């Protein structure tokens, strides 16, 4: 039945369930969090791929702990699982901290930082210089 509902019907039905106290707003918020949009999923992947320090390929086996997000990715309901929810939380927090609203802005932010870090790595003593400038 759910498959045949229009977006308007779905919204109205959920509002009725909350109004009739058959569903709490908290339950709905929790369920929505486990069903992120395609763009949010891509943003979580970008953040995970940029920030995860765990092992993602078998070449470095044994050097670092194996990435559980990567393992969950192989499963159909991965967005329901612990590591995906953890990285979703991290991503949501990061987007707020750096004031980014969408995938394009997130990609631009990472690109700018990567370009800057590449340029900085060409300067001997860049770390010390930055410390002095930011102090
Ligand atoms: Zn990972």
Question: What is the structure about, briefly put?
Answer:
The chain has helices at 7-19, 25-33, 38-51, 68-72, 82-97, 103-120, 126-134. The protein is 62% helix and 0% strand.
Report the C-alpha radius of gyration, rounded: 20 Å
Q: What is the straight-line distance between the termini?
A: 61 Å
Q: What structural class do helix, strand and pairing data support?
A: mainly alpha
N-to-C order of helices and strands: HHHHHHH
Bound molecules: zinc ion
Number of helices: 7
* Number of structural domains: 2
Low-pLDDT stretches are none
Q: Main beta sheet, described?
A: none
- The number of distinct β-strands equals 0
Could you characterize what this model shows?
- This protein has 135 residues and is mainly alpha-helical.
- The chain has two domains: 33 residues, no CATH class; 101 residues, no CATH class.
- It contains seven helices and no strands.
- Helix 3 packs across helix 5 and helix 3 packs parallel to helix 6.
- The longest helix has 18 residues.
- The chain is elongated and about 65 Å long.
- The site of zinc ion has 7 residues, from helix 4.
